[in-house]
Amino acid sequence: MTRALFTEWLMELDDDMVKKNRKICLLVDNCSDNHVEGSVLRTSSWCFFQPTAPHSFRPPEQGIIRSAKCAYRKCLIEEMLFNLHLKREKTKSTSSWRLKCSPFNGR
């Protein structure tokens, strides 16, 4: 994920939390793309893992990335099967399905 994508996602998440009147704290890996400069979050805060933190504490080592990829693939396959079931012509490209089935959109 690039810094621009992370910033966009973070701002959308913060807007959603404002609408729901919720406050959250994100635990973020300490990589350079996660350091967003100049962003003002209204209801969200974030904490970075220390570079010396054991790898067992970091989310990627706990299977979060694998789980997100599996959820994405499941959504993509369900969408394709649904279209096959309705005998639709392939009017959408798979790239539009990929955008629709983002693991972060709640599906």
Cα-atom Rg, whole angstroms?
17 Å
| Sheet/helix structural class | mainly alpha
What is the number of domains?
2
What's the N-to-C terminus distance? 20 Å
The succession of helices and strands, N to C, reads: HEEHH
Mean pLDDT: 73
User: How is the main sheet built?
Assistant: 2 strands, parallel
Percent range of helical residues: 40-55%
Strand runs, count: 2
Strand content: 5-15%
Number of helices: 3
The main sheet orders its strands as 1-2
Question: What ranges have pLDDT less than 50 throughout 5 or more consecutive residues?
Answer: none
Shape: extended
Question: In short, what is this structure?
Answer:
This protein has helices at 3-19, 64-85, 94-100; strands at 24-28, 44-48. The mean pLDDT is 73. Helices cover 43% and strands 9% of the residues.
Explain what you see.
The chain is mainly α. Helices cover 43% and strands 9% of the residues. A two-stranded parallel ribbon has the order 1-2.
Give me the secondary-structure topology.
Elements: H1 3-19, E1 24-28, E2 44-48, H2 64-85, H3 94-100
Parallel strand pairs: 1-2
Tag the structure with descriptive keywords.
single chain; 107 residues; mainly alpha; two-stranded parallel ribbon; 3 helices; 43% helix; 9% strand; extended
